[in-house]
């Protein structure tokens, strides 16, 4: 075996795959550019780090469940209120995760709450932050099943490895007593330790529809908003309703087609 083959084999044995893949090309460039040994080694190490970072980001995205198409590239921030845009710029830097701060997007159906939180989640993963996205209803069913099997602490521990948990549509489904209890437990477990991002079409005064009891509602809100950024989108029009109206105006008139008002859009 020649020295080059020995080197690539050694690099692969050391789990330095990118260095093994690029050592030949970098060596050629180093000779042509008369690079020092340090510069040659630096370039190989840089490529290895770059590839490892990208692999980690790809893994975080696969595990997150975040909708892939909902990013800042496909979100029209110009339609958001000025104050909300300023808050979004602050949030997308990702510092809130290290500080265990929560983010709450509040607004009516169709204004882009889910899209906004998904965009922030993608930015966080690009920074190497572990994120889990779930509809609140699905996650509550997961926790209820764990509670029935007497393994709720273990399930909460699994969620704890995600620095940021995104609960989409909290309040969109009316929770029963058991769901309310596990949701409250989840929020309490993460309080001041891990970040939660929430989207909701209910203002805080309506959260009794989620937690049923006034004292529990106050305690839950306190844990969510104590350290939080509130993205108030309550005054925004539904972009889906606007798109539907535009489509109706462009389409040939019919007598039996439902109007936008007759078919309210689901939450975003």
TrEMBL record:
A molecular function annotated in GO for this UniProt entry is:
ATP binding
Q: Which Gene3D superfamilies match?
A: P-loop containing nucleotide triphosphate hydrolases (3.40.50.300)
InterPro entries named in the record: AAA+_ATPase, DNAC/IstB-like, IstB, IstB_ATP-bd, P-loop_NTPase
Which residues does the UniProt record annotate as the domain AAA+ ATPase?
99-231
Domain of life, per UniProt, equals Bacteria
Q: Does the keyword Lipid biosynthesis apply?
A: no
Question: Mind telling me which SMART domains this protein's record contains?
Answer: AAA (SM00382)
Write out the entry's keywords from A to Z: ATP-binding, Nucleotide-binding
Compositionally biased spans, kind Low complexity: 248-258
Which Pfam families does the UniProt record give?
IstB_IS21 (PF01695)
**Chain intervals for the UniProt region annotation (Disordered):** 248-268
The GO annotation for biological process reads:
DNA replication
Q: Which family does the entry's similarity section mention?
A: Belongs to the IS21/IS1162 putative ATP-binding protein family.
- What is this protein's record name? AAA family ATPase
Q: Which organism is it from?
A: Candidatus Chloroploca asiatica
């Amino acid at each position: 075996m020649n020295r080059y083959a020995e080197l690539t084999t050694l690099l692969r044995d050391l789990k330095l795959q990118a260095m093994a893949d690029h050592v030949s090309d970098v060596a050629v460039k180093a000779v042509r550019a008369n690079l020092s040994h340090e510069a040659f080694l630096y370039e190989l190490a840089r490529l290895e780090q770059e590839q490892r970072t990208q692999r980690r980001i790809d893994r975080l995205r696969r595990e997150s469940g975040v909708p892939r198409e909902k990013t800042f590239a496909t979100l029209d921030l110009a339609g958001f209120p000025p104050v909300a845009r300023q808050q979004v710029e602050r949030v997308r830097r990702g510092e809130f995760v290290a500080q265990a701060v929560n983010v709450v997007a509040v607004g009516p159906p169709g204004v882009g709450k889910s899209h906004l939180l998904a965009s922030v989640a993608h930015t966080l993963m690009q920074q190497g932050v572990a994120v889990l996205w779930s509809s609140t209803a699905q996650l509550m069913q997961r926790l209820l099943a764990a509670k029935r099997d007497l393994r709720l602490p273990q399930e909460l521990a699994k969620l704890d490895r995600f620095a940021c948990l995104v609960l989409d549509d909290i309040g969109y489904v009316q929770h029963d007593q058991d769901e309310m209890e596990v949701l409250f437990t989840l929020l309490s477990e993460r309080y001041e330790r891990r970040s939660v991002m929430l989207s909701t079409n209910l203002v805080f005064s309506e959260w009794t529809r989620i937690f049923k009891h006034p004292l529990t509602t106050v305690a839950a809100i306190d844990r969510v908003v104590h350290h939080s950024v509130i993205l108030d989108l309550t005054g925004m029009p539904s972009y889906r309703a606007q798109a539907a109206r535009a489509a109706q105006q462009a389409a040939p008139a019919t007598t039996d087609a439902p109007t936008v008002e007759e078919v309210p859009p689901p939450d975003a």
